[in-house]
Each structure stands twice: as C-alpha cells, then as structure tokens.
Amino acid sequence: MSSRRFKQLEKRLGELRTHFLPSAFDPLGIYSPSVHDLTRGYQVLAHAEIEAFIEDRTSEVVARAQAAFRNRGRCGEVLTAILAFHYVEQPPVGEKTAEKIFNNNQDHPRAAVELSCRRYLNEVKGNNGIKQKDVLNLFLPIGLKPTRINAAWLRLVDAFGAARGLIAHAALAVQRQPDPKTVFEEVERIKADLRTLDEDMAKLR
Predict the structure, then answer these.
(1) How far are the Cα atoms of 3, 10, 46, 132, 161 from residue 183, in angstroms, in the given order?
(2) DSSP per-residue string spanning 18-62
(3) End-to-end distance of the chain based on CA atoms, in angstroms?
C-alpha cells in the first residue's frame, strides 16, 4: 500500500500534467513554442516534486527508526545501515576513550546512533538532485537493498536530472525542444518505480 506522502506526490504530478501539458498529445509531435516552454516548466516542477518526495520519505523512515530506538532500544535494519554508512569510519574506541565513556556515564551506543542519524539527515538536507549519485546516497544508507533499485530506472532519473539541469542553467539556444508526451512518459516511469520503492521503505524497521 502506498504511503500518504506518495499519494501526495501522485496528486501533485497529476496537477502539473493538467496545468502544463496538452490535454491530448499530437501524434506527429508538432507543438508551438509556448507548449515547449510549458513542457520545460513541467520538467522542472516535476523534478522538484520527485526530489522532495525522496527526501521526505527517507527522512520519515529514519524518524520512525529513531523513535523505535529511543522508546524500546531497538536497533533494526535502518539504523544498522545508517551506522554502516555514517559511523563505520570512526576510529576504534581505545582505552582512554573507554575510560572517558565510563567516567562520564555516557551511553556510547546511543550516541553513535544519534550521530550517524544526524549525519545522514544532513545529507538529506544538502541533497540537490535526483541523479543516480543523489538517490543512491539517500536510499542505500537506510537499508534499501541494491537489488531493489532498478538499474534502468537509475539511468532514467540520471537523464531526467541532467535534462532539468540544462533547462535551469543553459540558454534556450543550446536546448533541445522537449516533446510533451516523451517527458510525461518519463515522469510516469519514474513514478512507477518510486511506488515500489515507497512500499519497500514502508517495510523497513
């Protein structure tokens, strides 16, 4: 079952399709300059909605795992993965550090979990895109298995992210005219795999 946040994404993408794209696509792919500009707007805003969904949903997963740890001391697959990605490079606890932990009555495991979560959430806040490197940096550290992330989908989000960057940062003269139907279908394919990933994230603990 899809999460509330995914349903919000789905609704918003539907609104953008209505607001920016032709109600019917031209079978010959012939469109006016204004339609091409509206399609560019659709690309940029759809990209922003997809990016926000990924950031919000991964943050929700971490918040749920943190709550379970704080309330019941339960360190499940989410926190185990975050520790592996964001604490593994810490130096081993030596004799002096162990004495300091003892003398200060510190809960070192809890501190390690909290530090790792803060580091991960800082990565989420600093995220800027939906290219392959961006989504893997958010998905893998919360425990999503690489086998659950479609390689073809990664290539698609990579290309979609690059196209959005070109629209935002390059002059019109060097841009290709976007085809509304093609762009819409790309967003639908991205959304379809996000639905599966959303359901996978709902199972993470």
Answers:
(1) 25, 16, 10, 18, 12
(2) HHHS-SS--TT----HHHHHHHHHHHHHHHHHHHHHHHHHHHHHH
(3) 16
At 97 the pLDDT is: 74
Q: What is the mean pLDDT of residues 117-130?
A: 98
Sequence-distant (6+) residues with CB within 8 A of 177 are 31, 36
CA distance 166 to 131: 13
**Angle at Cα 126 formed by Cα 110 and Cα 111, nearest 5°?**
10
Output the pLDDT for position 168: 84
In this prediction the pTM is 0.92
**Distance of alpha carbon 47 from alpha carbon 201, whole angstroms:** 20
Q: How far apart are CA 57 and CA 67, in angstroms?
A: 15
Neighbouring C-beta atoms of residue 44, cutoff 10 Å: 16
More confident residue, 175 or 7: 7
Q: How far is CA 75 from the centre of its chain?
A: 23
